Each structure stands twice: as C-alpha cells, then as structure tokens.
Amino acid sequence: MAKKLLGIAALSALSMIPANATIARLQALGMSETDNEGSYYIQDDRNIFLNVANINNYKDTVILEWGANGNNFNGSTLQTDEYYSPKAKGGVIKSHGDFVYGLYLGNESNTSALLRGVATGAYSAANFTAGAMLYGSDNQIDLFFGGENSSVKWAVNGVYTADNDASVKSQDYGYAIRGGLIGEKWDALLNLSVGSKSHRRNTVAVSGGSTANGQEHLYTFDGKLGIQLGGGYQLTKTGKVYGLFKKFDWEQFDSIGATAGITTGASHGTAIGITDANGRGQLGTVDGGFTTYAIGYGNQYENGKGTLFTNIEYRYTQIEVDYTTKAEGKTVKVPLTVGYEHKTNDWLTLRGSVTQNIYGYRENNNYEKLSLSGYQAALSVFGSDTNGVKATITNSTDVRAGATLTFGNLKIDGLLGLGGTNGQISTTAPSTNERGVFDMDRLLARVGMVYSF
Amino acid sequence: MKKQIVLASIATLATTSAYATRARMNALGQAQDRGSFYINDTRNVFRNAARVNQTNNYALTEWGTSSSTNSVTAPNAEGGFFKNAGSFNYGVYLGNNITNLNADVNTDGFADAISAQTSGTLFGNTGFQKRSNDLDLFFGGDMGVEWGARLKYSNSKNEQGGTALETKHSALELGLGMVMGDLNAYVNYVINDEYENIGTAATGFTAENDGTMNLGVGYKWMDYTFFVDYDKKGLEYVGGTGVAANTTEDSTLTVGAGYTKEVSSTSRMFADISFKSRKLEDTDGTTAGNNLEVKRSTLPVTVGFETDATSWLTVRGSISQNVFINSQKETLGTNPERKGTIANTTNVSAGATLNFGKLMIDGMIGTNGVNGQNTNATNGVLDTDRILTQVAVHYWF
C-alpha cells in the first residue's frame, strides 16, 4: 500500500489547474439533482447542462464519464444513472476564434426515464418481468455553440435522441433546445423540451379463457412543451442568490388500464411485493404534470488552496397523474449544505460535504393508481405513499466525499468512501455502500476524466 | 543514414510510448483486431503489413488464455517480435487469430449473433478440431515505397482412433501492403481455412472459408486521414454427407476520416467519424424460412486523448457513439422486414501505459466493476486491486 501511495505521490510534474470537473465532484459537494445537471453556485464543467453558456468557461476540454453503455430505463426495474450504476457519457468542447462549439454524447435524462416509467401501461409493467417499460432516451447527442462579447457569454445547445426497437415494437424520441447567458454578476437560462414521445405495444398473454388473451396492449407517453427557467445574481464577492422553475406536462395513454381480472403466473408485481398489480392504471388518456421550483443562496469562501461552500435553498417538487383519483407525489424541503474542497498537493484534491434538511416534508397520495414502474419511480424520488398527509422527510443527513487525481492536464475524479464493509459497491443494495470505510481497493466510484488541451 | 533514421524513430517511441497493443486500441475506441485506420500503433501491421517498416525492434506479449476464443474480458495469449535487418524488416508473431471463423465453437451465424430474431440454423460444430497455434510471419522493406507481406499459417489435427474420423483444421492467409508517402493500401486475403470431421464416424462434416478478406486504402492530408475499408468474413458449413451447405457472411464497408493532433510533445488528441454499411446474411441450405439477413447503417463518432502524465505513466481515454445514422433492418425468411435503431452505442473506455524505460506495460483501466472482478466491466469504478486488464508488455530493443 505504501508503494501505491508513493507511486501516486511521484506524480509531480503537474500544473495548477482549477479542480472543476464532472458529476462526481458536484455530488461530493452535495449536488442531488435528479439529472445531475450542475450547480447554481459552484463552478463546474457539468454546469454546461444547466446554463449552456458555461461552455465558454470550459473550452478545449475532453470530458469522459465512465459507466455502462446501456440506456437507463428499459428493463423490469429502474436503472437510472446513479453513482452505483453510472451511464457512460462524454464529449469535447473546443474553441475556434471567438466562438466555442462542442459535442457531447450519451447524456440521457433520468427525469425523462422516470416519467416514461410513470406512463408505462399497468398491465405490461406488472406482467412482463423484463423489457416492458417505455424506452427512455438513448444515443443522445448534444451539440453546442456559443461565444462571448465584452460583457456577456452566450450559448445554445440542441439535443437530439431517437431510438426504435422493432423487436419489441417500441419507439422513442426527444428534442430540446437550451440557451444561456452569463454576465459579469448574473446568469440566466432557458431550456425547452420541444418534443418527447414514446410508445410501445405488447401482446397480452393470459390463461383462463380471458377475452383479453391475444389483445394488443398499447401505451404511450406524449410530452408537451417543457420549460426550465433559471438564473442567479452575485450579491457579494462570495455569495450568490439563484432561482429556478421547471415544468413539464404530458399525456399518457393505456389501451387496457386497470384489469383486475387479468393475471399471469409470473407477475412482476408479486415479485416486488405488490399484489394488486393488475388493478392499477386507467384506460384511455390521462394527463400528467411535473413541477419544480427553488430559490437559494450559495456561498463560496476561498482560503488559500481551499474553498468552503455553504448553501441553503427552498425547493418544491411535485408530480401528479390525473387519474379519476389523482395520484400525486410532493416534497417541500430546505436543505442546508456545508462543503469543502482542498488542494492537498499538486496531484490530489479532496472534497466533502454534509447535507441535511432543516425543514422538509413529503405529501404523497394514491400510489395504488400508478403502474408498477410508476410506483417505483415515485418511491425513488418522493418516498412512500403518505395517503395525502404530510410526513417529515426522515434521515436526510448525508455525508459525501470525493477526490481528484491531477496528472498535468488530466484530472481523474471520483467519489470516495463507497466500498462498504465488504469492499464491494453494491448495485442492488446501495444503502450498504456507506459504512464509513475508506476503501483503497475500489478507490474511486463514478469516475470521470477531464483532459484539457 | 537509414539506420540512423530508424534509431531515431525508436528513440521517439521509447519516450512517448504512443505505440502499443490491443489494450491501447480499445482504450482509444479503435478496433483491437487489425488496429486503427489513422492512429499509429504496432497493431496496425495486421491491417497493413507494410507497417512492419515503421515500428520494429521490439518484442510484445499480450496476456491471456491459450484458448482460441478472444474477447476484451477474456483475451487470448499472443505475442511476437519485430526486427530490423539492414534494408529489410521482419517479424514473427504467435497466437493471433483475428480471422478465426469460430466454426469449432459457434453455432450461430453472423447475422443470428446480432439479430433479435433467431434462425436456428447451424454454422459450426463443437466436434471440429479447435483452431490453434497461429503463426504470422512478416517481411518488408523500403525501396522508395514501403512494402510488406504477412503470411499466416495454422494447422492441427487429431487422429481420434477407432472408427472416429480424424479431425483436421488448416488455415492460410496472405496480407500485402504498401505505404507511399501519404498514401497507403492493403489487402488481407484468407486463402484457406477449413475444418473437417467432428470426431465421430459421421462423414461429410466440413466448414470452410467463403471469401474472407479485408482490403482498403488510406490517404493522409495534414492532420487528417481519409480511409476506405472493405471487410468480409464468410463461412460455408456442411453438416454431413448429403446435407445441403449453410453459408453465413458478414461484410462491412467503412468510409471515414480520422483526425490526430499533437497538442503538445506529451499529449495527443484523436477523433474520427465514419459511415459504416454492414450486411450480414445467414443462408440455410435446407429451409429457406430460416434465412436471415441483417443490414446496418451507422455513423460512429469517436473522440479520444492520450497524455504522458509523468515520465512513467501514460493515460488515455475515449468516447464513441453512433450519431444521426443508426439503423438496422432485418428479415427472417418471408417475414416482414423489421426496422429499428441500435441501442446503447455510447461507450467510454480508458487505459494506461506504465513506462519503465524500454519496457512498457499496457492495459485497460476502469473495467473491474463494483466487486473487483472484470465481469462487471462498466460500473465507473477505479479499482486499484486489478488496476489493469487486457494487459500487454512490450520491450523495445
């Protein structure tokens, strides 16, 4: 081990580069956005997906995020992009004269996948143990173009994703446009989802002479115009106030809906402990909506080679599906985050954070109407059903840590302390990964590489 | 004078470590079998034999199993040496089986293997003699035009005994290449690759090559290299006396451009884009309803980098994905054609070279997964136990 440390310590021909990099860094500093889209107050190259004008700050870089090459939501269980199941993505940002352009590959949205889980038809979600959910985005392409003049940095970003799997009669596509401005003390962003559709067909296979046997099950997700507005203002040399508003509506269609009489021998619902799986959903078209808004204050206090981060924000998140009995998930919380980052030497930067809600509740209702995949999506974001009453968000204290290994123009980022007690990073029981162990074997998780040229 | 140039080239190689192995090709998003169309690498001698004139005086070992199978997670053992001798260069390489038709292990056709539909047609038999002990001999020179030739040979048999028929396998392949300034061209042609008998008394079991070849041309212009490549693998299988032959083939036409930029004396950037038109066809000699055809049109983009982090460590990485053109059509028998896209093409790879003077150790990094085993290859973990996988060692002399 000593040799290993000495070896790393020998990496001395290194330049001083700001440690701004990747999803792992922001997660170590307390970011918990569903889509890991960046921070409103910490400078990081991941922020290009929040305010696209940030490409002007991170030009001439190649960014690689290690992970699986699969899309993240087409199996029997939720497989969103998390630290224990990261998704490969990356790209290049290049300057050309006064302009900056970029190409980023594979940055599929978790939110898009979760909403498709909600819209998946109840029968298929319950009875097909694999591959029944509406496909999420796949092979996504982000094209960037921006520039700056004397006072403002600007950029636009086009997003394109499409996939079509004839073997399971599934189609999915999505288009979005992002735009951003960054002034001397302010920034503003407008991100629009202009097209997002997914549909799928399965054949019902049930025993017992049901008239539904052989019937085609069609279910669709049809997104309407989605909007994300945000901005910030630098109040003091270290402090910044920011706000955001995000709203997305959709229509979902289910050609079967609640079908209590249809059962099969291998119900996925039974497998995860839900026995009324076929009594969920609703025949026909149903509207859904997702709303988030937040206002917050972030502070960065630099002290030599270190930085202290503090952040407090009010955040409201709500999703509803307008069945005859509305299914709803809602959280209101005020998380306080304290983080630090310290450049310990030329080749190693360490960081960490602690977050806890100083106020927070969830208010969920009628989960029993959601399809099983929708139920799983709601559980992962909003917690369990509270039957329409408010319940405190318990156990919100979270400590994270991370490191950057700097090799000249190359930085390797990752999360620390996720090896658990047995030296493994569990993908099936992530709660066992945080046992206060500094595991040198599985040294870094959710690794990202940034190369500056 | 020529010798001095060669020595200077070797000195450059030894300091930059930019030339190496399957692991390096995979980490940079290139093909591990024949190497890259535009990135300099020793592996490229399997595409263009004339490259033997450009990288020589080294010995190479690729760690792995002695089995005839080969993959990133279970690589086969191979290696050899390349040497300069006056005006000529030569090399001997052992265990490389990039044109293995897998008739001894794989019963799926090429189309079946990538299709969502199953034809059920057999294209091999596990009773066939295993392909083994591949030997590649290289010879080349520079007479104003760099030229090179490669001869691959593999032969094995088992007399079995009793009434069982002797199982045999033999393969012979010829590769020819030239490099003239910025222009290069090559052809690799399998002359013979044949399996006979399955270790029983049954007669007429054969599997043989059906037009396997690889040919192409490339042209370097400034930092860009334009390339056209045609690659075909074909196999004809006969499952006994009087049984009609089944044939399977996989052909790909690639037209593209690669970009290489020396960002500094210690760092390099790579990018490429290519249009690939691929056609795979399994033909059942007995049942036409089992005939399966798959066509793919793709436009993969790759961006990679390689940097000498220290005097003893080189780190590299890449991302690739199909963009805009990403379609697959397949037809089984008389069924309606199925159209779709190819899912999950985003791929991030990384690798490293440990430099110990003239000795270098290459490998992939980040392939061990969450539990320290290389079966979970893509979970974003930097594992210091099994720090390198698909390891290769090369020594320059």
Summarize, please:
The complex is a heterodimer of chains A (453) and B (397). Chain A has helices at 2-9, 22-28, 110-119, 122-127, 268-271, 372-382; strands at residues 61-65, 89-96, 99-105, 141-148, 153-165, 170-182, 186-203, 216-223, 226-234, 239-254, 284-303, 306-321, 327-343, 348-362, 391-392, 398-407, 410-416, 442-452.
Gap from first CA to last CA of chain B: 19 Å
Outline of chain A: globular
Query: What is the structural class of chain A?
Result: mainly beta
Could you give a short account of the major beta sheet of chain B? 18 strands, antiparallel
Oligomer: heterodimer
Overall pLDDT of chain A, averaged? 85
In N-to-C order, the SSE pattern of chain A is HHEEEHHEEEEEEEHEEEEHEEEE
**What would you call the shape of chain B?**
globular
| Cα end-to-end separation of chain A | 32 Å
What is the string of helix and strand elements of chain B? HHEEEHEEEEEEEEEEEEEEEE
Q: Strand portion of chain B, in percent?
A: over 45%
Radius of gyration from the alpha-carbon trace of chain B, in angstroms: 22 Å
Low-confidence blocks of residues of chain A:
1-19
Number of helices of chain B: 3
Helix and strand composition category of chain B? mainly beta
Give the rounded overall mean pLDDT of chain B.
Answer: 89
